[in-house]
Amino acid sequence: MEGYKRWVREKKEYVHSFETLSTGLMWVPPELFSNSEIVPEAVTTILGIITTINAHIIETAPTQDITGSTESYSFPYSLFLSVLAGLESLVEGVAQHYYGDNKKWNFLVVTEATKVLVRLSLFRKSGYKMLLSGMETSNDDTNSISLTSQDQSSLIRFGEMEPMTSNRVDQNHQREIAAECTMLSTCRVDQNHHQEAIIDPPVSVTERPTLFDILSKKGLCGVLCFIGEVLFITRPLVSVLFIRKYSIRSWTPWFLSLAFDCIGMSILSLVATSVAGRKERRIYLSASEKDEVKRRKLLFVLYILKDPFFSKYTRQKLESIEKVLEPVPVIGFLTAKAVELIIGCQTRYTYISGS
């Protein structure tokens, strides 16, 4: 395995070229979305998993920069979630082919429950921060080492006073400085005998905040952020459970899933734009968190592709547009292919679930 990792990192240009060629060839078979054809779906899934693993190997390549390295986990959460997301489509296709449309939801419940448990564990280990990249990556952004205005003003005052105090150092202070230098030299000798302490700085053992810490430090804003993130994480599982109970044609799962997303986005907008109290500090979003918020807002478009909304409204609109543009030579052909592709994707719940 180590040899394969080394080969991928050394030949990553060839790996990317091969993956691009393989992905392009998989669009050739017209039976890609057929319910009876499992082989094209399996090949597509395998190629996707290989691409995900190779990308993970390249991204996790060891570097010489120790101070700027982020915290890593013993369990590859991001890789596991990406692989599981790729397998979910294949699981749905196989279950639908061999067990029917009704019993396939049992398998989807298992896959969604697995993703929810892994994401909740990643959410806890990341210090109850917003999950990024489609809830597959932990949020390692931290502002704990940034200087506040008081710290900066203290440093400025120290810089202004330093030339004045340097001329007034007495002998006792000089002896104190010499003693400190001796202690520093002793520490350097000890560090040479313990190289592992240099490689693993004490920052890595910092305790992560608990729910009590969030409640005590951030107050209502912290609790609302926690509730909103839990709603985003558990929404796919709740949606599949209600579809399994009421069927895909029912409006109950559709409205319930939409309610989860609306409440979560409302909570996030509330805590990011207002102050919960006089002593509460406004919660600011980092650049990566803002990108994740934009991605979550785009997921609302998927609701027009979900049944029963798609069957009653969206599909009729698409077919009418296709009929209007059909006489046009090129545009009509492209429109027909686009409508066919949308309808084919809509037959698989995992393609439009937004999970």
Your description of this structure?
- This protein is an all-alpha fold and 355 residues long.
- The chain has 2 domains: 224 residues, no CATH class; 57 residues, no CATH class.
- 70% of the residues lie in helices and 0% in strands.
- It has 14 helices and no strands.
- Helix 2 packs antiparallel against helix 3 and helix 12 runs antiparallel to helix 13.
- The longest helix has 49 residues.
- It is globular.
- About 16% of the residues have low confidence.
- Its main location: membrane.
- This is Peroxisomal membrane protein PEX16.
- Keywords: Membrane, Peroxisome, Peroxisome biogenesis, Transmembrane, Transmembrane helix.
- Belongs to the peroxin-16 family.
- One of its GO terms (cellular component) is peroxisomal membrane.
Summed up:
The protein has 14 helices and no strands. The protein has helices at 2-10, 12-25, 39-59, 77-125, 149-166, 171-193, 195-199, 211-217, 220-246, 251-273, 287-298, 309-325, 329-346, 349-352.
Count of domain modules: 2
Strand content: under 5%
SS summary, helix count: 14
Largest sheet, in brief, is: none
Count of extended strands: 0
Radius of gyration: 27 Å
Helical residue percent band: 55-70%
User: What is the arithmetic mean of pLDDT?
Assistant: 74
By helix and strand content, what is the structural category? mainly alpha
Shape: globular
GO cellular component, one term: peroxisomal membrane
Transmembrane segments: 220-242, 254-276
Organism: Lupinus albus
Protein name: Peroxisomal membrane protein PEX16
Q: Descriptors for this entry?
A:
single chain, 355 residues, 70% helix, globular, Pex16, transmembrane helix
